[in-house]
Automatic annotation (TrEMBL):
InterPro entries cross-referenced by the UniProt entry: DNA/RNA_helicase_DEAH_CS (IPR002464), P-loop_NTPase (IPR027417)
This protein's UniProt keywords: Hydrolase
Protein name: Helicase ATP-binding domain-containing protein
Keyword Hydrolase: yes
Annotated source species: Nymphaea colorata
SUPFAM superfamilies listed in its UniProt record: P-loop containing nucleoside triphosphate hydrolases (SSF52540)
Keyword Transport: no
GO MF annotation list: hydrolase activity
Amino acid sequence: SDFLLKRYSIIVLDEAHERSLNTDILIGILSRIIKLRQ
């Protein structure tokens, strides 16, 4: 599967300023993916 999300060049997180556990986890996962893709 595409765990590095290579088919996407942009991912928009709407309402990311409204902090929650789910958005914090998602931002953490996306940060790791960005590092792996570089």
